[in-house]
Amino acid sequence: MDGMGDSLADRLAEVSAKIEAAVHRSGRSASDVTLVAVSKTHPASVVLGALGAGQTIFGENKVQEAEWKRPEVGAGEWHLIGHLQSNKARKAVKVFDVIESVDSLELAQRLERICAEEGVERLPVYVQVDLAGEVTKTGATEDELPAIIDYVKSCSRLELKGLMTIPPYIEDVEKVRPFFRRLRELRDRLVPGGGLSMGMSHDFEAAVEEGSTLVRVGTAIFGEREYREEG
Ligand SMILES: *Cc1c(COP(=O)(O)O)cnc(C)c1O
Asked: Looking at the DSSP assignment, which residues form a beta bridge with residue 98?
């Protein structure tokens, strides 16, 4: 990381400036891209610091972690960005404002049913796509995508916001770019006008150039994570 001596506010400003420059290169305006600060593994005190610096949207990959952290922070919009096990879906509906990791028809059906049972009128979701076919990654395959999207479009509680992907980690960002382009093509075909959640610390500028509307940035804002998250 460059700028390790910088404050959280400095790093946030730096990421925002890079997003702004990239979004202009893509011929769009800054308001077209939303920054989700990925706060997983970082304590509530650190998230409060980000909130104080003006960052209001946070991403967590575990239901349990957000369950204790969110009340301690007390504000903000919280996105689930990690794989959701079916037995944690009810808690997730209660804890999160947006679920970016809907990766199966069964999960979408379960979330719709739980929203009805819990009186949640509206739950914005992204369908996560696995473009690399790696066994370690989660996400629906391209083949599974149309059925999931048709179903979510038919839901009364789930609101389809767009597509999300986690590309493979490749040092050379130019080699990641084709994954971003592929997700954009799928979006254009299956969710016209929808959003694209793509881009992390090391590749968010390329993702924005390729049309990302929502970047999920952790390390570049908060520094290295305090412990490893297990699979
Ligand atoms: C951890 C995580 C991020 C943020 O990764 P960084 O490289 O720290 O920016 C983004 N998206 C998902 C799904 C993650 O799990």
From this structure: 79
Exposed / middle / buried, residue 210 (Cβ in 10 Å: 0-12, 13-18, 19+): buried
Which among 216, 224, 229 is the best mutation to test ligand 1's pocket, defined by most ligand atoms within 8 Å of the CB?
A: 216
Per-residue CA distances from 67 to 71, 190, 210 (Å): 7, 33, 34
pLDDT in tens, 130-188: 998 866 568 999 999 999 999 999 999 999 999 999 998 899 999 999 999 999 999 99
User: Relative to the CA of 100, which ligand 1 atom is closest?
Assistant: 13
Tell me which DSSP letter residue 72 carries: H
Give the C-alpha distances (Å, rounded to integers) separating 22 from 178, 181, 204, 212, 215. 17, 15, 9, 10, 12
Site residues for ligand 1, CB cut-off 6 Å: 38, 40, 61, 81-82, 166, 200-201, 216-220
Residue (of 67, 95, 100) closest to 83 by Cα position: 100
